Amino acid sequence: MFPLLLATGFSFEATHTITENALVATFLVLYTFAYSPGAGVVPFLYSSEIFPQMLRGQTTLLGLFAGLDAFALIMVWLFVPGTERQIATMEEMNYVFGVTTRRHMDYQVNQVAPWCYDHYIRRRKKNDLPPLYRYARLRETTNAT
Predict the structure, then answer these.
(1) Burial group, residue 30, by CB count within 10 angstroms (0-12, 13-18, 19+)
(2) Is residue 82 over pLDDT 90?
(3) What is the 8-class DSSP label of residue 121?
């Protein structure tokens, strides 16, 4: 099966689009034919059937785990400041961690959440979010000197 997937990967290097599409489709079909008669989906079916009957009905624990994961996601979103947006220097990191948690939570709830709702769910193109951190002045002053 590995040689067929490797051939599929190399098929993307074809020079013509029609040839590339034909090669990729051919090797994927061959891979599917090689995968199906073997173990194929058996491990997935077997793993769902090996538990005793009394444990299969206990989805409450899984639901509790999923609920705690969702709760943790919300808590991280509210409490942990993000450092991925255009932070170039250690001085700018001081601004990120210098903002109080209360102000960060207020920004997440009152600015980011409505923007995400309008932008991703209602599909309205709004302006960019107002910045939470005001460190642009620091860049201008350090670049001027």
Answers:
(1) middle
(2) no
(3) I
